[in-house]
TrEMBL record:
PROSITE patterns: GNAT. This is GNAT family N-acetyltransferase. The keyword Amino-acid biosynthesis does not apply. Residues 1-137 form the N-acetyltransferase domain. The lineage of its organism: Bacteria, Pseudomonadati, Pseudomonadota, Gammaproteobacteria, Lysobacterales. Pfam families: Acetyltransf_1. It comes from Oleiagrimonas citrea.
Length: 137
């Protein structure tokens, strides 16, 4: 066994692929697919921020969502979240899940119909990870 804080991308992909195959064998459903909505600089094409996640077994998983401060409050984040949710619906998802940290964006998600279903304290003291869900039906 090897303990590492820098696993090779190929090693992580192998674990993911094997878990995906296990799920396919157990469910006969092969629908895992990445999903991203990217904000790009119109002049350079550089990615400025975005939403990254996946759909699988009827759920949208929002893994990462970040916009630089200069783009927040413009409505862009709301449009990006809606785009991800709409694509998940097209893919047959009935619900979505994510976690955010109490100092990040729980109020943003609540304004968009997300509800907390769990909270776990983390560092620094007074901070927590908030697990949220939203029906897409």
């Amino acid at each position: 066994m090897v303990l590492t804080d820098a696993p090779a991308a190929t090693d992580v992909a192998l674990i993911s692929d094997h878990l995906d195959q296990f799920n396919i064998d157990a469910t006969d459903i092969e629908d895992r697919k990445p999903l991203a909505v990217l904000a790009k600089d119109p002049d350079t094409g550089e990615v400025l921020g975005g939403v990254s996640g996946r759909t699988s077994l009827g759920l949208l998983f929002v893994d990462l969502f970040h916009l630089p401060a200069s783009l927040r409050g413009s409505g862009l984040g709301s449009r990006m979240l809606r785009m991800a949710e709409e694509e998940a619906r097209r893919r047959g998802c009935k619900a979505a899940v994510l976690y955010t940290i109490s100092f990040q964006a729980p109020d943003f998600y609540r304004r968009h119909g997300w509800e907390a279903f769990g909270e776990i304290p983390c560092d620094p003291p007074g901070t927590s990870r908030i697990f949220m869900t939203k029906s897409l039906a």
